[in-house]
Amino acid sequence: VAKEEGPGLVRSFEPVMLYARQLRREMASELRSAVERDELRLVYQPVVDLVTGHMQGVEVLVRWQHPAQGLVMPDMFIPLAEESGAILQIGRWVLRKALEQLAEWRRHAEHREDFHVRVNVSAAELQAMDLVDYVRSVLRDTGASPQELVLEITESAFVGSGDVETYSMRSLKALGVRLEIDDFGTGYSSISYLRRLPVHTVKVDRTLIADICGDEGQLKFVDAVHQLIRAAGMEAVFEGIETQQQAGKLREMGCCSGQGYYFSRPINEKQVGTLLASGSRLPLATELVA
Ligand code: C2E
Ligand code: MG
Ligand code: MG
Ligand code: MG
């Protein structure tokens, strides 16, 4: 067992650790049936036009309503699901549910062609040969058009990305689905992939912008990252915008899209519906533009 922990780590038999490990193991096995037992929930975080405060779309984020543990966040169970392979089933459920929800919003709010949903896709899903067929069938079943869907693929998925991934991405692009690199700036991949991959947008990780208001050097760095993305022919989206000052700095830089607690925390489907029906301005938008 000690080997599992890697070299240099002192093995500890503290009850807390044993308990944590057992909990993880139990959760991993429960995850397999979480979809069938209908325990997964979706929340939605608005992605906003930084100049107008207008909601351009939403990012779909999954939660697990565990019968005993309560609400479990994805950072806790997505890695487990990736290890066990349950992510394939979860990912399918999320995609279908998200596009069904989009159809539901359409029925109740003004029709907005440009409104889109962004769905996170794990590396394992990208490697599954049937991803493209599945996306195509869900689009057909829900009546969504491909342009309304953005698939967010985390940067670390491109580390050593091979033929299957590239093939999947090209097929998805051919289908008309937009692709995005998520968490840009956190992986260890070379940036040359920016020009190689059929990607439309790049989402800059929140750790990069955390200190742009306190650190002039970091601000310059983020500006350069933005230029780099634009030079590669892509659009940038900034995540983790928590303050009006951060939003202002990014706007001055000419950045167009972003999301973060400053604009809105992840919200439920009813709240998105209300926003859509009321013109999609986020509560803080007027303050931002002023
Ligand atoms: P992500 O794709 O980078 O999603 C953004 C995360 O940042 C979300 O956490 C969101 O709630 C959080 N966030 C948004 N605005 C702010 C902010 O202003 N400040 C801070 N500190 N955080 C902010 P969440 O919902 O816990 O999701 C964590 C990660 O789990 C996601 O990161 C994504 O990688 C993964 N994930 C979530 N849903 C899915 C899914 O359906 N499939 C897959 N494969 N992964 C998912
Ligand atoms: Mg994401
Ligand atoms: Mg991510
Ligand atoms: Mg991210």
TrEMBL record:
Q: Does the keyword ATP-binding apply?
A: no
Cellular component, GO annotation = membrane
Q: Which organism is it from?
A: Arthrobacter zhangbolii
Q: Where is the signal peptide?
A: none
Q: Which domain of life is it from?
A: Bacteria
Name the keywords, alphabetized: Membrane, Transmembrane, Transmembrane helix
Q: What is this protein called?
A: EAL domain-containing protein
Q: Which GO terms describe its biological process?
A: signal transduction
Q: Where is the EAL domain?
A: 24-280
